[in-house]
């Protein structure tokens, strides 16, 4: 508990310094509680650092099911590790069981573990597919992410309508064009 209090105090002090460095007054009425709010927000938006993805893999027998399991349009947000600005969008996670399935909500929770960290979009997809391959051992797994990056909108090139799409595919989704095409058809249906 003491470590947590020290961390909160350190975050608050850092935010006060940031406010000063950008040229504003941390004692200004609208900013007085900002350091506290930021310190309270960090465990929520960066909660992936304290979660263990292995604990999410409660599996169930599904020996007779060999079709694609797809959870699509999963809301996603993360923080760009390069600029500490948000990126957000949706992810589609699919797998083909190999005698075992996982609860559908766990797919979204696995995504949250990796997205609630300082990240790059490409790594999130890789981490999701690697974790599912390792712990569920499906015939194939895929994670496709479509996201808008505030670092592209607010700074640099300032492109307001750009969407970055990344895909990570393992097993049959990588090696079998028919399985990959079926997956893409399901996502876009």
Keywords:
single chain; 189 residues; alpha+beta; GTP Cyclohydrolase I, Chain A, domain 1; GTP Cyclohydrolase I, domain 2; 2 domains; five-stranded mixed sheet; 7 helices; 7 strands; 42% helix
Question: Mind explaining what this structure looks like?
Answer:
Helix 1 packs across helix 2 and helix 3 (104-115) crosses helix 4. This protein has 189 residues and is α+β, with helices and mostly antiparallel strands. It is elongated, with a radius of gyration of 20 Å. The protein has seven helices and seven strands. A hairpin with a 5-residue loop joins strand 2 and strand 3. Strands 5-2-3-6-7 form a five-stranded mixed β-sheet. The protein has two domains: 2-45, GTP cyclohydrolase I, N-terminal domain (GTP Cyclohydrolase I, Chain A, domain 1, Orthogonal Bundle), CATH 1.10.286; 54-187, GTP cyclohydrolase I, C-terminal domain/NADPH-dependent 7-cyano-7-deazaguanine reductase, N-terminal domain (GTP Cyclohydrolase I, domain 2, 2-Layer Sandwich), CATH 3.30.1130.10. Helix content is 42%, strand content 26%. The protein has helices at 2-21, 34-45, 104-115, 121-136, 150-154, 172-175, 177-187; strands spanning 59-61, 69-80, 86-96, 100-102, 118-119, 140-149, 164-171. The chain starts with a helix and ends with a helix.
Question: Summary?
Answer:
This protein is of the alpha+beta class and about 190 residues long. Helices cover about 40% and strands about 25% of the residues. Helix 1 crosses helix 2 (about 35-45) and helix 3 (about 105-115) crosses helix 4 (about 120-135).
